[in-house]
Structure prediction request, 350 residues.
Amino acid sequence: MKPYFSFQWHITDECDQRCKHCYIFAENTHKCPDFMNIGQMDMVLENCLDFCDTYGRQPYFYLTGGDPILHPDFWTLLDKFKEKKIPFTIMGNPFHLTEEVCKKLADCGCLRYQMSIDGTEKTHDWFRKPGSFKTTLEKVAIINGAGIRSIIMTTVSDKNIDEIPDIIDAVVAAGANVYAFARYCPTSDDKENSISPKRYRKLLEDCDNIYRSYEEEGCETYFNRKDHLWTLFDYEKGRFHIPADAEPEMIYGGCNCGNCHLTILPTGDVYACRRVQNSCVGNVFSDKLSDLWINELEQYRNYDNFKKCSKCKLLAWCRGCPAVACSSGGDFYAEDPQCWADSLEGLLIK
Prediction:
């Protein structure tokens, strides 16, 4: 079976919300939402499939926006996915989900539907809009009922980090199939990343205890330890060991940027990672993705350039989050501001 290659495809900026931490509207809340017409979406799909044919991969799409369901040709695109038997995940909002819609999504090949909870009710609704918290949790059962895996994601910032344990409880109570969190990448209007390494490590410790308690009870929610600093945490705890037969030049895990992932925006701009705001490498309407991959994307695979990670024994498995590192100073290879590896004896090579 060919390995998958993932495309995060933003087909529209149109959205029911104007979230305070959204990178689309962070710098211009009055911008006119971009979107692709059906002819452009056909071009994108053809380019992506050509990429996969060239490199022997199977395509997997993460359709998002904005809220992709608001695109006027959303269902036309999904019919094309169904015809070509392309699996996909939707990353969207809860507001237009009904039993009928979810069943139709499943029929088209949707495997997962991801929504966000970014705090307890008051905090989340402040981030997004009034009523969003309750609506999101209520839609979990409808998604599950259609045979689609429900995913809840949290964007962790200094404004909600103390509420993560309560979010986990709410997500489990709602019956979500998967829960994960990722760190906020500050925008140009908010460059401060004030969570200290010690505080972030405490969050992982607290969540690890909560996860393990739920798992021991037989909880059906899968806790996806998405942040690569979980690898550092597990190494510290003695749960992760560097394999004795690991090859020195191999990359075994960590950030997918430059490895098995691309982002395509409604304008056609291609990004190494959407969370890395200066990572545009071309445009899908004028460039072959297969060419971008071996040329422009190579700059994200220079692992010796990592300021701190290149000195760490976990380089091949972790590398923290370059997007978080880049968001503060614009350097993809900068030190992850929440990494505490330098406090662990023998991990960094002097």
